[in-house]
Design a protein that fits this description.
Layout lengths: L1 H12 L11 H21 L4 H20 L18 H11 L13 E6 L2 E6 L19 E5 L2 E4 L10 H8 L7 E3 L6 E5 L7 E5 L5 E7 L3 E8 L3 H4 L1 E10 L5 E9 L13 E3 L18
Length: 295
């Protein structure tokens, strides 16, 4: 009965695409580990009904490619929405135990987009954060990315931050802690203490993006994403556009950011005339001026 209840919880916790609402990669890994352990017990003792087993087996087939798609070149998970890098040893072990032969997911990978080119792996957050009352630690990270080259992470997010105290955790949830662009140094979303259903006030994310557009293109030379979100449109009238391009050789990665003020609404909003772009480099990355480039 315990195994049956656990299997029902796993199926209810994920949607038909195998996604979880929090979009936390490390939490997704925990669900996958529990799923594989439940299936191991069933194979040993045949405790589940046929219908329950088939539901878990199908879920395993869906979740394994997503978990692969959330990994950077060194095998760690992308750090987003309260999740850390995860245990690479556990990820390897349970992916082997799952024995799923399907290819790594690249489109809508738990709300992320993945581009692999040569030694480069790019993972871009292209979906809304969880703004429900049960959300634990959603981040204001729409259109942010992480990038690795081979086994070396290059651009990384700041991670969950909770181990360093409440203030740093809040900073790590803001737009400024991610590899993306903000209007006037203003976070895409805000964090406020809200009391719902007469419960104790809880810090929640508010003013999240309503519309996110994703267009993925590929040619013989490159793969690129044309992205946009409207977090700043309601209050400031701007839409953030971002284009990220990777040559298929993996030797070049470029990006372009722009903010467009919607026509006909220029006089209704608080004026903001500058923007900030943030890059969080991995501690082992060193920068220097190339002798042939003007920087």
């Amino acid at each position: 009965k315990i195994l049956t209840n656990l299997s029902m919880l796993l199926v209810d916790f994920t949607d038909t695409s195998g996604h979880i609402r929090s979009r936390n990669p490390e939490e997704f890994l925990d669900c996958f580990i529990i799923l594989i352990e439940v299936l191991k017990v069933h194979h040993a003792q045949q405790l589940l009904l046929k219908k329950e087993f088939e539901a878990l087996h199908n879920l395993k087939e869906i979740m394994a490619p997503i978990l692969r798609g959330l990994r950077l070149g060194n095998g760690s998970l992308t750090r987003a929405h309260g999740g850390d890098t995860g245990s690479m040893r556990l990820i390897d072990k349970y992916l082997v135990d799952a024995n799923v032969k399907r290819a790594t997911a690249v489109n809508n990978v738990l709300g992320f987009e993945r581009i692999t080119a040569g030694r480069l792996i790019l993972i871009v957050d292209c979906s809304k954060p969880d703004s429900s009352s049960d959300a634990v630690s959603p981040h204001a990270s729409c259109l942010s990315f992480e990038l690795s080259s081979g086994l070396r992470p290059i651009f990384v997010n700041c991670g969950p931050g909770g181990r360093f105290g409440t203030a740093f955790k809040r900073y790590c949830r803001s737009t400024q802690a991610h590899n993306t662009c903000s209007l006037g140094d203003i976070s895409q979303a805000q964090f406020e203490f809200v009391s719902r259903k007469k419960k104790w006030p809880k810090e929640m994310i508010v003013n999240v993006p309503k519309n996110i557009n994703i267009v993925r293109n590929k040619s013989l030379e490159a793969t690129w994403l044309n992205l946009s979100h409207d977090s700043y449109e309601k209050k400031y009238g701007y839409v953030h556009y971002r284009k990220l391009l990777v040559l298929n050789s993996g030797k070049v990665f470029t990006g372009t950011d722009s903010f467009e003020l919607k026509s006909g609404r220029k006089m209704k909003f608080e004026k903001i005339d500058n923007f900030y772009i943030y890059f969080q480099l991995h501690p082992e990355v060193e920068l220097w001026d190339h002798p042939r480039l003007q920087t």
